[in-house]
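To close the chapter, one final illustration. This time we ask the reader to focus less on the individual chains and more on the assembly as a whole: which components sit near each other, and how the overall shape emerges from the parts.
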Amino acid sequence: MKRVFVGAILVALIVLLDRLPADDFPTAKATLIAGVILLGGHIAGHLLSRVGLPRITGYLGLGILLGPQSLAVIDNDTASLLGFLQELAVAFIALAAGAELRLEQLRERMRDILRLTLYMTTLVSLSVFGFFYFIGTDFLPVADGLGAAEKASIAVLLGILAVARSPSSAIAVIRECRARGQFPETVLGVTVALDVFSIVLFAIGLSVCQALVSSVTDLSFMVTVGGELVGGILAGVLLGAALAFYIGKAPGNVALLLLGTALVVTHVAHGMADYVRATHDLPVHLEPLLICVTAGFTVRNLSNRGDRFAEAIDAVSLPVFVLFFCLAGASLDLQSLQTTWAAALLYIVIRSGSLFGSCWLAARHDPDRSWYGISFLTQAGVSLGLALEVVRRFPEWGTAFATIAVAAISINQLIGPIAMKMALLRAGGSQTRS
Amino acid sequence: MKLVLAAVLLTVLAFFGSRVSVIQLLLARIERIPGVRHLLLTGTEFVLVGLILGTHGIGVLDEPTLTGLAPGFGLGLAWIGLLFGIQWDVRRLPPATRAIIPAALGQAVLTGAFVAIGTHFLLRLYLGWDDESSLVGALSLGAAASGTAGIPKSVRAGSEGLQRLLRSIADVDGLVPILTFGLVCCLPLLHDGDTRFWIWFGCSIGLGLAVGLVVTVLGTYRLSEDDHLVILFGAVLLGGGAALQLSLSPLLVNAIAGFLVANVARPRTCSAIRRLLLEGDRAVYILFLLLAGALWNPGSNQTLGLALLYIGVRMFGKWLTAGWALRKWIPAAHVRRVGLGLISYDGLAVAIAINLQLLTQSPMADLVTTVVLVGVVINELLAPLLAAAALRGDVMSSRVEGSA
Amino acid sequence: MRIRSCSISQTTNPRDRPLKLLFLFIYRQDLVDEALEALVEMEINDATVFEGTPMERILADEVPIFAGLWQSHGEAEGQTRLVVATIEDQALTSLISVLSDVGVDLGKPEIARLYSVPIEYHRPVN
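The assembled structure is written out below.
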């Protein structure tokens, strides 16, 4: 009740500020909205946690409510000004994900992680591809009027998209539940591995699709992606070493340092990609997510500053999560669901079924095997990035493809955390504390 | 890209600056000179670093970059305001501090008025400004002049009791600059000619109370450390952003919020939020010194002359008014020089200059920034010497020993 | 220091139930209630709480920028709480676990520190 009262105060403030004569000061408005997001997210998260739902569902829900397609409190200009927070958050959450991966535990579970990853990558992508290639394109409005090569390309890309996962949601739910044990560690390890695999697969898939559509084979792209992966890992190791050194020399205000690092990595990576594209016409892009996961992993496992590093991440992770998921909710394109809900639903059903089946097969000796499948439902950042890349590469049908993808990703983003929380609370190999 | 690099550079410098031992290590020799040591202790050298990074130096912190960083400044101002306000738990103020409040506020008000009146005439007659601009400029400078910073414990001269008395005055008189500048932000010049001064003042109070109420009510639940941090950042961003949007003072708005939290919220919430705010105390100040240095336009001789005059007028005002305010505690023979212990500038002076720059990019704001910064640098060099002179000998009456 | 209460634990035979004297330093005021609740949970109801100031605060030469008022009356109040209590030897491990559960993390010296000394002799006894 008191939280609802506070919510009412926030609403009243927003309404009043809208009506009072104010200077055109967009950055002040963005600052104010960031404050509303944090306070409102705190309230929404707590309200939903009382009914057993994960807090990030509350943050997402608030973002949808405040977003441009609902109350428009977060309008497009504000979302654009606060965009850097989202980028910072993705990189920071990647640092947190890297810090969660403990080498000694990974070694014990390496076989399980690799088996789950390989089974899911193969079975999920083949299932989704197979369904949409042989049956499903009839259900896709985007496929009307397209040739066989284009339909095959759509099926391939949907298959690859189905593999991508959301480390940010995984981290957020694991931290909220304070989950420890074999199950959450395996889930996190698989999530990070799937992200890397999906980037590689996507690069291969794009080359294949381009070959199908234009009959031109360009293998240089594969070399570029390989280089990006190796470069990203190397950059991550170097960054991790630098962070460990800095923490050792000046252990105060590490949290501030990590936030700054996340911001710099994102902008330097994008800046370098733009520079290389402009000067050498090469689509080389070091993935900030990969750099930060590697850096976090390096500090945690290959230096003796791991504990201090992990404490600093813990200290500021909640405000970062609240901002990130609220802004992610605000950016969800729910209007696309109106036109593509059937196709999106089909995709979700096939994907979920194949996830469950592949995990069941891969973890057949694990008593928690029935809980793995639903832990991998969420899709977010990387998936959206892949969808946008399709738009760029295949302008004739890319937009329509992205609409379906975004609709499906939006639904997965909402139901995924709920399913994952349920799995964490029920799996035997998971100890949680709310 | 430049914006990001600038933000990171500022953060790193603020981080290093807040660790005083680093600076002391680097400048171990020259810091033995008392004025220089005090200047380093307060981090005032970062004004010069900011000047080097600013438009008149290497240009890393140029105007578009600083405009892009504006939300960060608003956050910093709100942080300071909330930190100041949350200290004012009136139930727990020691009797000695309560006793000194009227005197402390009195000397601050009189000094501020003295400086403001003098500056107003100088701006009108010497620089030929119109009424409105010179009023806003003069009141801002008066507000910046009224506060005092505490004497560091390293300045040991005279009795412990007198040091504590002066420190108490410095702790309390920050209320005057915050309130004064809050009123300045309600003047028509900063609201496109809107003359509804009391409406805007009411908005400041209402906004502050709303933010404070939000924190207080949310604090009634049993919250984790993480939740306290979310609420703190939320309150600071909300208060700061809303105040800037309405061209009000984030310092005043959040000070009111902090005051409400200190006196109404659960002790656990208040204590947790205060502790988190304290962690950013020095880093925010260093950041503001950097920004002020970057915004500083040191080129004009006229402004420099005015700045030196301002410093002199302020010192005189402090010296005069302190004597009147402290006559109850200090023997008449010694009361005159005690004012020399109140020369050091309050950190709020720099915050006021930054706040004014955010609200109006104008020659008036540039002048206020220049005058305040020159005053800060020179005062920090002179303050320990003057304080040592003020505290020389055993000048206490037994009343001070008992009450301070 | 202000002493709020004073009582001494009792035992029938010190040799049968070895006791320790517990010194729990809590540097975070917002965790004091939790720590005391943890002691109550362990059936330690006769602890005494002292207030003090950390040494580094007294020796600190730093000039407070915006927090001078708090530093002044914070010193008067005391920023450290020292909880002194007696505890049975075998209960110490459980107490550490309970303290950790309520957020008093003894692994972080800036939050809390715990010391115990064996009690050889005490009066009164039952």
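The CA atoms of residues 214 and 312 of chain A lie 50 Å apart. Chain A touches chain B through 49 residues (CB under 8 Å). With these observations in hand, you are ready for the problems at the end of the chapter.
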